[in-house]
Amino acid sequence: MTVAIPPSDTAGSPDDRPVPPTPADDAGVVVPAPAGEGFWVEPGAADDVAPEPAEPAEPEVAEVVVRDAREFGVYARTGGWAFALKVARSVRPGGEPAGETPKVSAKRFAELAGCSPERIMRYYKAWDKAADDGLVPHLEILVPGQDIELPDSDAWHSYYTARSSASSERGTAIAAAAEAEGIRPTKALEVAENPTALRAAILADPATARTARAALLDRLREDPVLQTELARDVARTDELKKAVATESRAADRIGYVRQIVENGQVKTPAGQTIDAPAELRAEAERHLSLIDELDDGEDTGQWATEAYDTVKELVVQTVEADPELRRQERRTKFYGSLQRATKVFEELTLDDADDLDDLYEDDMLQRLEDLQTAIGTCIAALRRAAPEQP
């Protein structure tokens, strides 16, 4: 039972005070005393259930925020078409007299917009080209403030050119190359107009440098002038000359191995060409397959050296194992040396033989005498080896 005790200044114990009846509603349910009337109410079981908090009301959005969000949504769906429409319906077409329309010139519109007339005309021309394709209404029928259903944003880049250079011969070539590569011409034109930015990207990013290198190689095949300029740059740079020499040596060695695999023939150390044995061919093919499996960016120098040294050793073993082949190898080697020596001696000029005072040196004379002795000995040996004449 709930007991309510009214406040009192009268002395006496609480038990001696009269107990007023507890208020109840029409159904006989005891109703707690209203707050602020001085009654104490014993907490009941129903008071243990806390009321659910009300969800906070959504704050009111400022009108300027709403406008920005809606304009952003329009641009997200339509891209540049949203701005092109503003130009198309407000700028009068060429030849339309001023005063007969509320539209203004591109120059006046640019002044109001705070940008260049060239930029306004790029949007104007984009709309005009799209109108010729039936994608949007023609400029002449649009009026200021008119809204229409705009094309999808993906179609915008097919008509809009952000660079004035696109209309030049150079820009046309760049745009055509970009379309062939499957990218937007505006991207390629932007790069072409910012060579310093391209240089910075190449210097900072290895991936960009590799892409530039591949493109440059493709360009070199069709540009003899660029070939000459690049060759000159390489010849004048010591680091590049060393790198080219290293790569040329590796390429020559790979070519030596590839020749064995593809033609079945090999050159001996003396220079004679022989048929490659099956074992030699198989070993050359194994090394070549390992080289061909390398990625484009991997260094082939070590692999080329290993393949070349292995194959050369097998060639020497092949020559040594065949007496007739070994004899022919020695003959070829000797004859090659004789040809080189003859060519070098023939290059000696004795135009000044009548006046050798300025040329004479003891060592010079001694070398010629030693050479004469060696040649005489060689001639005598060859004469002894010559078959007897019948």
Q: Radius of gyration in whole Å, from Cα?
A: 49 Å
Alpha-beta content class: mainly alpha
Major pleated sheet? 2 strands, antiparallel
Determine the number of helices (DSSP H or I, runs of at least 4 residues): 14
Describe the global form.
elongated
Mean pLDDT: 78
The CA-CA distance between the termini, in Å, is: 157 Å
Q: Could you spell the SSE succession in H and E letters?
A: HHHHHHHHHHEEHHHH
What does this structure look like?
The protein has 390 residues and is mostly helical. The protein is 56% helix and 2% strand. A hairpin with a 5-residue loop joins strand 1 and strand 2. Helix 5 crosses helix 6 and helix 10 packs across helix 12. The N terminus is likely disordered.
Describe the secondary-structure layout:
Elements: H1 63-78, H2 81-90, H3 106-113, H4 117-132, H5 169-181, H6 185-192, H7 195-204, H8 206-220, H9 224-235, H10 238-263, E1 265-267, E2 273-275, H11 278-292, H12 301-320, H13 323-346, H14 362-385
Antiparallel strand pairs: 1-2
Structure at a glance:
The chain is an all-alpha fold.
